[in-house]
Structure formats: C-alpha cells, structure tokens
Amino acid sequence: MSYPRYPTMRNSGVEWLGEVPHEWQQRRMRFVCEINPSKAELSLLPEDTTVSFVAMEKVGTDGQLLLDTTRLLESVLQGFTYFKDGDVIVAKITPCFENGKGAFCNELVNGIGFGSTEFHVLRPYRDYAPQFIYYVTYSYPFRSIGAALMQGSAGQKRVPDEFVKDFTIAWPPLAEQRRVAAFLDAKTVELDTLVALKERQVALLLLQRQALISHAVTKGLDPNAPMADSGVEWLGKAPAHWNVQRFKTVLSLVKNGVWGEEPNGDQHDIICIRVADFDRTSLSIRIDSLTLRNVRPEDKNRRVLKRGDLLLEKSGGGELQPVGFVVKFDQDFPAVCSNFVARVRLKPAADSDYFNYVYFAAYSVKLNLRSIKQTTGIQNLDAEAYFDEFAPLPPLAEQRAIVAYLDQETSQIDTLVATIRTQIERLRVYRQALISAAVTGKIDVREIKLGAEAEES
To answer: Which of 37, 110, 152, 348 has its CA 20 to 30 A from that of 366?
Structure first.
C-alpha cells in the first residue's frame, strides 16, 4: 500500500535520515527524555508496596509486555531496573536488542515496575509522546546503529548509555507524534493479527505432518492389513505381520560424541555437529552455520559420521522441548558429533530413514520422558533406558515403502510451511519498514482515517 508524502521536506544533514518534514525539529534523545532515571523518587513509598516485576522474557519483540508477576518494593529496590507508567524500556544486551525487545510501560501495579538490569529506561519530557518514542526505539535506524556500537565481549555485548542519549532524529509536534503513534498502533495490530493467523496455519500443518508420520510408522500404509494388539501402549494395534521389539535390537553401534578444542587450522580440525544444528522439521541437520573443532586423531577416527547415521540428543532440552530428539546425518563431508549428541548406527535389517521417522513418532508422544534422568536445567537422557523401549519393525521392503510415502507427503507439507514462513518474514520486515518510515517522516499520516474515523467517513 502506498501512503502520501509530506508536501514540504528539507535536508536533515544526516546521511541515514535524509529528508524530513520541514516542521520537524532534530534533537538528541537526551533532550527528549530522561535516560535511566534515579530511584530516589521512591524513597517515601512503604517497603511493602506491591510493584510489577518484568523479567527479560516477559518483554516481546513486538512491543508486548506480560505483567503477570509482582514483587514487594523492598525485594527489588536494590539490584533491579526501575521504571513507571509512561516510560519506555529497551533491552540493551545482545541478541535481545537486535531482536527488537522493548515496550511502552502502562498499567503497572501501582504504576511502578522493576525488572532486568539489561533494560535502558527512557522517561519522556512533557512535549514528547512515549508511544512515539517507543516506535523510534523499535525503528531500523535505532536498532541497526545501536547494534553497530555495542560494547563488550561476544555474547555479552550491550548498547551503551551514550548511544541512547546521543541518538538524533527529527521530532514532530506533540499532536503529530500522537497521530503517528496511533497510526502505527492500528497498522501493527493489523499486521500482527495476520502474522498470528499464518503462524497458526504453520502450527496446524506441523501437527498434520506429525500425525501423518505417527500413523504411517505405527499402522502402515495398507488400511486392509490385519491388525493385532502390539502389547505396547504407545503403539496400540499394529499390523499383525510386523515385529514389535526393543529399539536396542536394531542397533549396531552407539557412540557418544566429542567436543575437542578450539580449531587452529591444522589437519585435526573437523566439523562438529551440535544440537543447535538439528532441523526439527526435516529431521536432518542444518548446514548454514556449522562449527569447526580440533579433535585428537584417536577420538576422531572412532567417531567420524557416515551418511545415514542417526544423531541422538542426549543432553539439553527443556520444559517445552525435552531432550531426546533424533535427526539423520545426510551429508558426505567429514564430521563428528558433539559431546551432547550420540551417534546411532543401525543393523542392516533396519532402514535408517524409517527409524528416523519412528524416533520422531516416539518423541511426539514423549516416549523419551521416561528416560530423562534430570528434569531441571540441562536434561540428560539415559540412552540405555531409552533404547530399551519398544519399536515397530515391518519387513525391510515395507520400511522403505513407508519412507518413500512419507518423504513425498512431508515434502509437500514442508514446501507449504516454507512458503508461509517466507510470507511471515516479509510481513515482519514490512512492519519494521513501516514504523521506520513513519517515525522518520517519510510518510504523512495526518489525513489517514483510522478505525472509527474511517467508519464515520
């Protein structure tokens, strides 16, 4: 959709900002709002005052703020960041800053909030609208320039106070700030609703994919095949001619991985597949950002992967995604797996592609939960207990027929999922571009009808 431009523009003198509306005034952020205000104004409040508490994970990348946690003032006054209704908070640590974490604060308990020390707090002065300031901090210029100026070690880089204080942009009059914010509120709600709808479509497609796999590896492809009780709860009835036996009976070799040392450019450097490289949709590995490690020859020679090896996640996981996922190594380059992963090699009677699907089906019913030895922090899988579970084993030719069927059917679903995810990404890019255009004066929203205005007209 195209939007009108301001009738008169002037050169801002700032390369990235370009032309701005003639009436807009350029100012550094320090003259627009107080940065990281003092807690001194709370000194007269009772210590048992209830306040909102906002951890970093409660702040969305779309301006949402989850206010489901409270604390007493005395418990948070020291060691946490203070903000109040009307403030804008911005995550300052990587990757939260780059991901857009930040929010306009409203409806805090007793108007007061405390949270992570990794927030910058911006408190607008009288002639500046906090919602407009939030959108400025979300805009691409603010995020990209801030990311380039981060300081600190890898994984702990932060946006310095001085960047926030000295960030310069052109500011419209207060009424126009509010109009821009109202326009962006309306448009981002529309875009977020569309993104949520498409994300729901993806979730339903993935559920369909999961059900397709589970049915094929537990019931087979012939709807007329005689069925018999497998004696195994998660399998239920299975084709009568199938064997049902423990996972371990089809194993040829299980070998734990190795992490090695930092690479130094010699012949002992080798790709090391981590859990982070698992593609949980395609049940294979991602090769976009593989890791090199230096592994001793005696460790490497016993652990080099072969195409068709299955890789079992034996450490990691979490409450929503428990440990125990399996993917297939389908590459020809030399590689080992990390110490959080075990290499699983099967006997000739078992097709690795078929069992890749079987492991996924078992995971989807959380069969692995019974084999998790630790349920807090990093989970550890008892591989011996896991492989003692039962699995369906049709004849080898039937295994391969099931694989061919599932490859074809899941490929169609995966293509559709990929298309929708591309659409989602484009909507998110457009969302930020629209915000950036509006707060830098590249579109004139003053006469655009919003909500009830459009209905009345």
So the answer is: 348
For 248, the 3-state DSSP assignment is helix
Strand duo 335-337 + 269-273: pairing: parallel
How many Cβ atoms sit within 10 Å of the Cβ of residue 83? 25
The C-alpha atoms of residue 306 and residue 343 are separated, in whole angstroms, by 10
Contacts of 221 (CB under 8 A, 6+ apart): 398, 401, 402, 405
Tokens of 242: 């199938």
**Residues whose CB falls within 8 Å of the CB of residue 214, separated by 6 or more in sequence, listed in order:** 361, 364, 365
pLDDT of residue 419: 98
Helix/strand/coil percent split, the chain, to 5: 35, 25, 40
Segment-wise mean pLDDT, segments of 10 residues, the chain, 457 residues: 90 93 96 95 93 96 94 95 97 94 96 96 96 97 95 88 96 96 96 97 96 95 95 91 94 93 90 93 90 92 93 82 90 94 94 94 83 75 89 95 97 96 96 96 90 56
Give whole-number Cα distances, 158 to 58, 69, 262, 371, 404, in Å: 19, 26, 25, 40, 49
> How far are the Cα atoms of 90, 183, 358 from residue 105, in angstroms, in the given order?
11, 19, 48
Q: Over the Cα atoms of the chain, what is R_g?
A: 28
- In 80-163, DSSP assigns E strands to 81-84, 88-91, 102-104, 112-115, 119-124
In whole angstroms, give the CA distance from residue 102 to residue 299: 46
List the one residue out of 54, 106, 47 whose CA is nearest residue 72.
47
